[in-house]
Amino acid sequence: MTSQPSRPSPKNPVDMLQDQIVLLNHIYQAQQEQLLLLRSLNEQFAQLQEVLRQSPKSMTRVKVEDINMRFDSMVIFLFKRTFALLLVGIVFGFIFFCVFMMFVATMPSFFQRF
To answer: What is the pTM of this model?
Structure first.
């Protein structure tokens, strides 16, 4: 004889409804806990907003009036800046050239119409 897995006996509809009621009660309790947590978080957020409204603005304006730099170090700084700008210009020029060439390569049918 082969053993077949035992199948649970079908439940009575009343028992199924009672199980559903128990599950719904658990869900309801979990939702109530979540609501309490959300309310407490909302109160904390409102308190923080009130504190921020009452605190003075912490923005400070700064005006640079003088850069105390020797002439030779300023010249070296300007040469470094110029070199960096040239490199950036070359890289952007190369990227623009590649994009332009891709545009031209994909549009030969457009130019043949005229």
So the answer is: 0.38
